Amino acid sequence: MRVRKLVGAMALAAVASGGPSAYASSHREAPFITKLPKVDATDFYMFRSYEANRAGFVTLIADFQPFQEPFGGPNYFMMDPDALYEIHIDNTGDAQEDLTFQFRFNNNLKDFALPIGPSGAQQNVAIPLINKGPISAPGSMPGLQNLNVEETYSLKVVRGNRRTGNAQDVADVNGGSTTFRKPVDNIGQKSIPDYAAYANAHIYSVSIPGCTTDAATQGKVFVGQRKEPFAIAVGPIFDLVNADPAIITDASKRNAGTNDLANKNITTLALEVPISCLTAAADKPIIGGWISASVRQAQVINPEATYARPARVGGAWTQVSRLGMPLVNEVVIGIKDKDRFNTSEPKNDAQFAAYVTNPTLPALLEALFGPALKAPTVFPRADLVAVFLTGVEGVNKPMGGATAEIQRLNTSIAPKPKGSQNNLGAAACFVNGALTPGNTGCDTAGFPNGRRPGDDVVDIALRVSMGYLLNSDTAAPSRGVPLHDGVLQDDAQFYDTFPYLTTPLPGATTP
């Protein structure tokens, strides 16, 4: 289901972006989620950490709240304190969570006021801004005192079912606190002159119950604003893939387009966890992962709203957003099923199977760009099922694994450092549909074996959707066409240390 959506979405996006365009990941991808932007999941990354001396860890990155303008004041992009944000890990291959990392947020208003009026008749009046002066790192006074709204969060690890399993608090190694600060968004250089240093002060070493035993197995967590890591040309994509086929089929023009997200930010939940904590056993190295967001089932608007209580919420947690592979729900799933997909769990993905086995994207591309592009004629598309629903044999397919749209990562495959990664990932390891580890550029540490920030998932999915993994020119006439979206993703665009995603763009620069 999501597989097909992802493949189709990527293919569509790639074609759409053609010359100057790219495609978005799951940004505003379903009708209902457009009403709930604070819980809109946009991207999920899961990869062996390639920071020096951290190869024994897996990094999990969940991005939320799309299309953030850097100048998003006066409220900016705080997380929803009435929502539950989760990263799920399946380490038994049954498409059900065995571990869940749960994030909950609090927005603490200090309610700064200024004395206004003539001497002797002054009134203390609340200020309308999120800060009243320059802000510095935690523990640095008076900088922290100038922040009018301080956002904090808690993190729990749940073993077993996400709602009924055993939940325990993750704690800061330094002091044992279970409450973490989230840096305020990048308001501008006058408010926060050195945002990179300020944000880095919010990277915490953490003790994860049941995982951490010594300093060598301490995880890390960071929650905060980052520069949008994805690339997209939204307009051309949804304008019937408005692209020049001569550009999107020319491998030398993979970076010829314009990234419409280049001036946007995103909110990131990043977690680094020891491999031994995520896997069920040493001989079962393949894990699956996905992210979700849930809200309470009922909401009643407060007719006399206050900052702390604009509405009353209650009832069971209800999932409204879900993401494993990129772009699946956005461009592949039919409109009638998009909201259903967001509320579903991977274990129930059989209901969406036709979107993967009989994808519409290749047919659409042929209709728009034939004869330059010809859709594969073999059905069901077992190649797409392998890439997006079961894992690829010899790369990341678990023994006895379920069929479900989740990311799968083989943690036994060593990471590649920044500068040596192939942005075509594990796809570069295949020749005529067969896994060929000795192939030039083969990088089994990359997508679809998990997903790193620098993996060009659009180009990979485009080529796979048009039959790259099939071994017949008759069944897949365009399998050798180097389709791309014109907007390059590469490891050079990101940091080589946790949390990998780069410093967000400021709302204003110093004049």
How would you explain this protein's 3D organization?
Helices cover 16% and strands 25% of the residues. It is an alpha+beta fold and 511 residues long. The longest helix has 16 residues, at 2-17.
Keywords summarizing the entry:
alpha+beta, 6-stranded antiparallel beta sheet, disordered N terminus
Number of strands: 18
Q: In terms of quaternary structure, what is this?
A: single chain
Strand content of the residues, in percent? 15-25%
Mean pLDDT: 89
Radius of gyration from the alpha-carbon trace, in angstroms: 23 Å
Unreliable stretches, pLDDT < 50, 5 or more residues? 1-24
> Can you tell me the overall shape?
globular
Q: What distance separates the N and C termini?
A: 50 Å
Provide the succession of SSEs.
HEEEEEEEEEEHEEHHEHEEHHHHHEEEH
The main β sheet shows up as: 8 strands, antiparallel
The number of distinct helices, counting runs of at least 4 residues, comes to: 11
Which bin fits the share of residues in helices? 10-25%
Structural class: alpha+beta
Describe what is shown at a glance.
This protein is of the alpha+beta class and 511 residues long. The chain has helices spanning 2-17, 195-200, 234-238, 245-248, 275-278, 328-332, 335-343, 354-357, 361-369, 382-390, 457-465; strands spanning 41-48, 57-68, 83-90, 99-109, 113-116, 123-126, 149-159, 166-169, 171-172, 180-182, 204-207, 219-227, 265-274, 286-301, 311-323, 407-410, 430-431, 434-435. The longest helix has 16 residues, at 2-17.
